[in-house]
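Hey, sorry to bother you again with one of my protein questions. I've been puzzling over a protein and I'd love to understand its fold better. Take your time with it, there's no hurry, and the full record follows here:
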Amino acid sequence: MHETVTLQLGHCANYVATHFWNTQQSYFTYGEDTEPTPIDHDVHFRAGIGAGGIETYTPRALIYDLKGGFGTMKKVNALYDMDEGQTNKNRAAIWNDNIIVQKEPEIEVHPYITSLELGTEPPPLTTDTVRYWSDFNTLYYHPRSIVQLYQYAVNSTLSPFENYTDGRELFNSIDKEYDVLDRDIRYFAEECDQMQGIQIFTTTDDGWGGFASEYALALRDEYPKTELWTWSFERGEKVPMEKSIPRTVALANALSALMPLSSIYVPLVSPPINVPKFIEMDPTSQWHKSALLSTAMETVTLQTRMKDKALGAKLADLSATLNPSGFRNIGLVSMTLPTDSTPAGSHNGSMTTIDSAPKPHLVDLSWTGKSSEKRLFSIVKVSRGTMQVDSTPSISESSMLQVIPQRLVLSCSGSVFDAPFHTKLAYPILDSFPNIFAGRKGSLPVVSSLRTSSAATETLRRVRDTVLRYAPLDDREDLYNELSGFLSVYEEGWDSGSDSGEDD
């Protein structure tokens, strides 16, 4: 079935993943009169048995967060819940003395979640009312999916989880006591018929970067041939230098550890550096920022969960397209969104020329720089839905696939590994999704791309140069040399003006 297991490490990652899982759930269809979904749910969902013998279907996910990060979400939910009174009686039977239960003040359940449980019309969500990622979560998870780490607390000022080394030490201390792979991931991995890969959602400029690095190392030792995709979230807001430098040094350590272990490493900046006015996003809201990232991520990997295997692709296929040389595994994400007056354009040969303004909105979600993109090595393009002009479909499937490459290919030279994919399934805009796309309702046509290119050089160079000045002396030389090695494969032979199309 080519299953994928997802690891979610930290608060930011869980916001993005919650949008991802809500979208997956929306693809389920019910009733004989409903058009069958093109999505193979078994890729990301697992069948099981809940309380009372009921059949369950829950995500293949492991969700890690710090103390206070889960909000009102309980480890044991309605699918698996025993009567609480009976549970306390079972505990008391183990001990001779009476049990004294101490509880922290309970967080009030969000009205949106209450309405879902009651089957009533949910109230609209707002940035003021969404406090946790669980406030807009629409799924039940298996109890073994929920892993709370009590050693640190979310948004703590006394003991913040910001240091890369703290993350490494936290993982190793837990692994020493419990064996993390055996306790957590093996349960989900071993029930797969043919696991196509593991994807990690994690921040990399704080303690979770260290935690993810140690986790990925353990996974690579256990599953040496399995696809391991890392979706790396970096905080893009401007902060004082005393905060930005430690974040950059933490990122440098995470890059040094995670890039060699990952089949594909995808950096995503939250919020993105440049956001078009069409996107009405509150840059201080995790709910908003994560929605934008999830739209692009879910779209660009859509073909890995298609029922029709002749149309779809596995993670390994995408890796082979993006990194045929085996040396360039940094995937950069861009997304194109339509306007209500997107022009039809004219199709000329293998390229599409957009003749009139306004053009579709292009959003770079990964590393971007001031310099032009000199070399595009490979690209995976996914288009979904149809763009429209005055409510009339106007951009054909072949044209739609060219919207993003037009900006890139015109400035690049040499051969490009190009893998386009199109589906009529538009991106669903759910009631759990913020209203960030200029009032779009129901669904949204999207073009999303994942590419390897010379655009990675500017951020790699900036991180490397920061290491040279601010990293601890014991780590400075090794980090600098490793980052220089990563940088060289994206700039060598191309910054010097080579147009041969051959890699050195």
Residues 84-88, 341-358, 387-414, 495-504 have pLDDT under 50 and may be disordered. The chain is about 35% helix and 20% strand. Residues 241-261 form the longest helix (21 residues).
